[in-house]
Amino acid sequence: MIARKILESSSVRELYRFMLENRLSRKALFGIVRKRLRRDLVDVNEDDRPRGVQELKLAYMMALFHGFDRAMTRGYVSRGVTERLLDTVLGNVIMNEERDGSSFEHHPLLLVVSPTGRCNISCEGCYAASDENANKSLSFDIFDRIITDKKRLWDSHLTIVSGGEPFLWRDGSRGLLDLAEKHTSEFFMLYTNGTMITDELAKRMGALGNISPALSLEGFEEETDARRGKGVFKKILDGFDRLRRHGVPFGISVTPTSRNWDTVTGDPFIDFCFEEQGAVYAWCFQYMPIGNNLDLDLMVSPEARFEMLKRTHRLIFEKKIFFADFWNSGIASYGCISAGRPGGQFYIDWNGDVMPCVFVPYAVDNINDVYARGDDLDSLREAPFFRKIQKWQDAYGFRRPAQKTQSWLCPCPIRDHFGFLHRAALETNARPINSAAAEALSDPEYHRIMVEYAKEFEKLSAPLWKEQFAEVPVAERAD
Length: 479
Description:
Elements: H1 2-7, H2 10-21, H3 23-44, H4 51-73, H5 79-94, E1 111-113, H6 140-154, E2 158-161, E3 170-171, E4 174-175, H7 176-182, E5 187-192, H8 199-208, E6 211-217, H9 221-228, H10 232-245, E7 251-254, H11 261-264, H12 267-276, E8 281-284, H13 302-317, E9 322-325, E10 347-348, E11 353-355, E12 362-363, E13 365-366, H14 367-372, H15 377-380, H16 384-398, H17 413-416, H18 418-427, E14 431-432, H19 435-442, H20 444-469
Parallel strand pairs: 1-2, 1-10, 2-5, 5-6, 6-7, 7-8, 8-9
Antiparallel strand pairs: 3-4, 10-11, 11-13, 12-14
Helix pairs in contact: 2-3, 2-5, 3-4, 8-10, 13-20
């Protein structure tokens, strides 16, 4: 392809490298990116998505670019990371003239892998701590094979690493950074509690250039230490400082509950993380009652979730801050991305158990068994439980024209459509991975509360979907 030959030209790469490293030129480069994205997403929109959905997706993507721009302007991005950003921007956006059979129109975009359930702190409600086998870990060879498999099968170059604490994962002398060093074309985003980021670790990440950690906060010092342990907040700030000094772009990860949602989505906290500390992005995972000592009262109320949704959109459009809420931002991902959906993902934990996503604790297979019998990652996408979820995703909106897309403000099978998820798990004999997951399937009160929660939120959010995102049939348009 002509574009690929141009990409391989050293003179062109040097030009774009200069543009990335010079702020005024970088502004022009991002203008090119925005123009290309707007053309593809909004003007052409060949997949017939609602226009409001495409506008929001574009805003999210540009907010991420703005996050990197802020970090690069402050000198928080190493040369190694710049090279990776260059490959991403130039290779996947500017020079991408056409898509082929290996594109994400057909395959997952990424995988989420928790190589170990071990952690050096203990947090209330943690899903990892509910597993009796949390001290187990994937072998280096299995994790290495997973990365190799998804690149070969899907042309996927993004892996999300969760846990447990990812920096505790070891197999003999090898750990996470050794895996990243072996797979230089892979970009790893990992969720960490931030307490293990030494100066040496940050220096190596900056040199590798293909790792970005998201450090977990519950708010300011009071909220963070209350859930994560005394002194954790200060250790996280030390981690921020080391990452900045070694040019490692980082984000934050927050878990809103009924106690702290107002804090973690409020302007003082957002300004602290992005303006004072230099975060590039934020991931928000509202408390989901699937972990140890699950507490339904910790769930963010439907009213609070709706207020969080409005705040998230304001951050994206007005402040150009990439703040992605796993549930409230489902519009930008065209709904649920679990179960190996095209452009989506699935989840593999430290036991090797394979699940639709981190928040659906029902396994369809085990990766160790998959490889032992000679199968690969693609075989997992055909699991009956996965296929039921994929069929539901397609019917709900993913494979529907804009005028027939249902509300992606309520995108999640387990949180917003628990009745469906409950039936699908039972009908396909999906295996609960722990006692809490088994209890959630059998407890009628849990079932009732989840279904009622979904009804309340759907009622609150329906007018917003209709006004801003639902596509009006052509016959009904005023023009």
